Structures are given as C-alpha cells and as structure tokens.
C-alpha cells in the first residue's frame, strides 16, 4: 500500500517561499498531488504532477507554484513563492493507489508569520 | 474546473438515525468520486472511493451511491463517533472538493 510523508519548515516569513517534500513508498497510478486546508476551513487542491512529467496546477496558485518530482529519491516537492498569511494551512501530499483509491500523508502545518 | 456542491451544510441527526448527504458535480465525473470524514485536528479519513467502494476498514453502515453528477453518502445508523464533517471529492479532472457537510448531534 502506498504511504506518503510530508516534511519541511513549519514557519515561513511573509514574501518568502514555502518548500515541502513528500517521501513516497509503494505503488501509485503515477499522479502526485498537493492539497491544503487553512485552519477551520475546507480542502483546496493545489496541483499535481505525473511521473512522466506533465503537470496541472490550481489556476488561483499557478503563478506562484512549482511541483517537481525526484524519482531517484522517491519523493516529490512543492514550492509556493511570495507567501502571505492566507497561505497558512495544513499541507497534505496525496496520490491514488493502484486500485484507484486516494491516499494521503499525515499533513504538516505551515504558518506564515514574521 | 469541476465545482462540487454539497448539501445540506449542516445535518442534525439523533444517534441511531439514518443520515443522507448529497454531493452534486457541475459536470459528469463518472464514478471518480470519493467521500471523506474529518474530525477536528485529524487527517481526512477516506470512506468511499469509486463512488460506491468502501475503503479498507470502513464499517458497512457507510454506503455510497450515484454516478455522473449526483452522489449520495448514507450512514445507516449514526454512531457517536460518526459526528464529524464530511467532504466529497472528484478526481475525474484534477481534484476538487465540496465545501463539507457538518453532521451534528440533534
């Protein structure tokens, strides 16, 4: 069964870059996604990358967003530039396993504050 | 972008009663629909995927139905641990989520 684990700084300064990595074990359908949830709010899809290199991003974040994949390290990454307090959220990495079921990491809280 | 709309926003139910939650997609998502349960401070827990398939370890009182644009999550007899927020998610084209339904004790 596929397992995912997020890692990265829990505090980022305003106007800085939020950088997270997701370590992966197990098989998936090949699409790797990021989702976030601001405190007390709903779930927002950030974007996804396929293992063959194609990507889709949430249009509301696309200008600030880079998702990349490092197959040699079995991990994929998120970079979100020019962050503000509105980017404070729990960030989850996710995929779908070979049966098609969505699978999520445990999530990591990132706070944007000086 | 496929917009997912859940109803109602809040559902008040007594323990032991049946709960029916709805999710509508702005265009067809076929059966590429999942349901999650989330409690405060916890990761969303996958209940249903493929619109009707229960995830591993999910009790039989949870069932999903529908295809295309109309979907339903039914909890046949609410237990105390079922009071939570429920989200639907489509994965037909990218991912989008409904705004959630809060199931509260009546």
Describe the structure.
- The complex is a heterodimer of chains A (114) and B (106).
- In chain A, 0% of the residues lie in helices and 56% in strands.
- Chain A contains no helices and eleven strands.
- In chain A, strands 2, 4, 5, 6, 9, 10 and 11 form a seven-stranded mixed beta sheet that branches. In chain A, strands 1-3-8-7 form a four-stranded antiparallel beta sheet, with no helix packed on it.
- Chain A is globular, with a radius of gyration of 13 Å.
- Chain B is mainly beta and 106 residues long.
- Chain B is globular.
- Chain B has no helices and eleven strands.
Give average pLDDT of chain B, whole number: 97
**Major sheet characteristics of chain A:** 7 strands, mixed
Largest interface: A-B, 20 and 19 residues
State the shape of chain A: globular
Q: How many DSSP E strands of chain B?
A: 11
Tally of helical segments of chain B: 0
Number of strands of chain A: 11
Characterize the overall form of chain B: globular
Strand portion of chain B, in percent? over 45%
Helical segment tally of chain A? 0
Distance between the termini of chain B: 35 Å
Rg of chain A, Å, rounded: 13 Å
Q: What percent of the residues of chain B sit in helical stretches (DSSP H or I)?
A: under 10%
Biggest pleated sheet of chain B: 7 strands, mixed
- Indicate the structural class of chain B: mainly beta
Average pLDDT reading of chain A: 94
The oligomerization state is heterodimer
Point out poorly predicted stretches of chain B.
none
Helix content of chain A: under 10%
């Amino acid at each position: 069964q596929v397992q995912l684990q997020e890692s990265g700084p829990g505090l980022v300064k305003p106007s800085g870059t939020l950088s997270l990595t997701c370590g992966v074990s197990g098989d998936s359908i090949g699409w790797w996604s990021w989702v976030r949830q601001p405190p007390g709010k709903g779930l927002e899809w950030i974007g996804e990358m396929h293992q063959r290199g194609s990507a889709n991003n949430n249009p509301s974040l696309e200008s600030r967003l880079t998702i990349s994949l490092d197959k040699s390290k079995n991990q994929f990454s998120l970079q979100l530039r020019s962050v503000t307090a509105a980017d404070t959220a729990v960030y989850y990495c996710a995929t779908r396993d070979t049966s098609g079921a969505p699978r999520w990491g445990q999530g990591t809280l990132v706070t944007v504050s000086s | 972008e496929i917009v997912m709309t859940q109803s109602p926003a809040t559902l008040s139910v007594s323990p032991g009663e049946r709960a029916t939650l709805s999710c509508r997609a702005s265009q067809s998502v076929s059966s590429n629909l999942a349901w999650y349960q989330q409690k405060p401070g916890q990761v969303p827990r996958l209940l249903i995927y493929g619109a009707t398939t229960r995830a591993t370890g999910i009790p039989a009182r949870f069932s999903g139905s529908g295809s295309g644009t109309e979907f339903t999550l039914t909890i046949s007899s609410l237990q105390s641990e079922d009071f939570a927020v429920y989200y639907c998610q489509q994965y037909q084209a990218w991912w989008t989520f409904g705004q959630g339904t809060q199931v509260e004790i009546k």
